[in-house]
Description:
Elements: E1 4-10, H1 19-27, E2 36-46, E3 54-56, H2 65-75, E4 76-77, E5 81-82, E6 86-88, E7 95-97, E8 102-104, E9 108-117, H3 126-137, E10 141-147
Antiparallel strand pairs: 1-9, 1-10, 2-9, 3-8, 4-5, 6-7
Amino acid sequence: MSDILYRFIPVDCENIVQPDHQAAIGRLSFEGRELEATCLDRIEFADAGSGFEDVCCPFCGESLLGWWQEAMDAAYSAEAGFGSLKAALPCCGKDGSLDSLDYRMPQGFYRSMIEAFNLEDEGHDPHEVLDALEGVTGFPWRLIRAYY
């Protein structure tokens, strides 16, 4: 059986969990399930692990997998993380963003991330965590299930 790492990231990758938010998140209780917070000074990518299927254009639906890897490599620096996420999409020529692509299995970019292993195995609804995080921080979050 594989483990599922539940990753919660803000919908807007520039949103960052403030120190008072971190304390409130630390007090959230999901029957003893610990939520681990990561806050960075750079933008990183949260993937779906072995659940990654495809990445497609949000405008025309064409698969961008080959182009996407090159675009990710060009936008990333080991020292600074991701720079600009803006991109001209090769399929239809529209202006887009690496963050707004249609990831088949949700994935995304973040400066803040909250993680917990195997929530659903113990009867926890990850959407309750989304609601709690939004209540604490005041901004919306997205759920990424990373399979390992």
